[in-house]
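Design job #97: recover the sequence.
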């Protein structure tokens, strides 16, 4: 049985109650730069990968990605609309056993990596049924995504930065970009590649 062949860290996910509010918060606190927003996204394969096998058709989530300047660190913000989870956050102390919500790692052998991790006696997957496996992200339309960029707008006396929401017709999820279930990765996030080349992302938890 082959161990996972890692190629790098993709992102760290933080669950929030409002993605846009979280953009403002982490921009203020960390200086993080929003670069992508996926509002009210429905994708059966994505939710199956996240363990919501029976609820996948009705599930809905909003996702945002932020870059932290000066690092290769990417923050993923995620807000589930359906199915709803616990609304009140749990605040852990520094010595409480809790763990990160998830850390996404890039791999080149997703099927083998999944089988290896699933076989470990001290690992509990987010879905323990026999139906849980590596799922392929379902077809995604370009209109599902909003790319956020920073533009400089020159004013008479000063220049200021503003966030601009752009609709892009050429975004799709590439087969090499998806690494962890329940979250998107654009090669760290969404790959801006020609959709005619085909390929959907894969997910593993």
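Job complete. Output follows.
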């Amino acid at each position: 049985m082959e161990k996972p062949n890692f190629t790098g860290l993709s992102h760290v996910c933080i669950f929030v109650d409002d993605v846009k509010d979280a953009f403002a918060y982490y921009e203020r606190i960390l200086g993080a730069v929003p670069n992508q927003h996926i509002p009210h996204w429905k994708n059966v394969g994505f939710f199956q990968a996240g363990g919501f096998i029976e609820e996948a058709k009705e599930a809905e989530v909003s996702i945002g990605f932020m870059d932290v300047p000066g690092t290769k660190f990417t923050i993923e913000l995620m807000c589930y609309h359906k199915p709803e989870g616990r609304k009140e956050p749990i605040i852990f102390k520094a010595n409480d056993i809790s763990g990160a919500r998830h850390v996404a790692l890039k791999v080149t052998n997703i099927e083998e990596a999944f089988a290896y991790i699933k076989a470990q006696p001290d690992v509990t997957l987010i879905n323990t049924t026999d139906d849980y496996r590596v799922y392929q992200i379902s077809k995604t339309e370009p209109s599902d995504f909003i790319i956020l960029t920073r533009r400089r707008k020159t004013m008479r006396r000063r220049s200021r930065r503003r966030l601009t929401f752009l609709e892009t017709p050429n975004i799709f999820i590439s087969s090499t970009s998806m690494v962890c279930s329940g979250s998107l990765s654009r090669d760290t996030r969404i790959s801006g590649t020609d959709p005619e080349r085909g390929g959907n992302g894969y997910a593993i938890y």
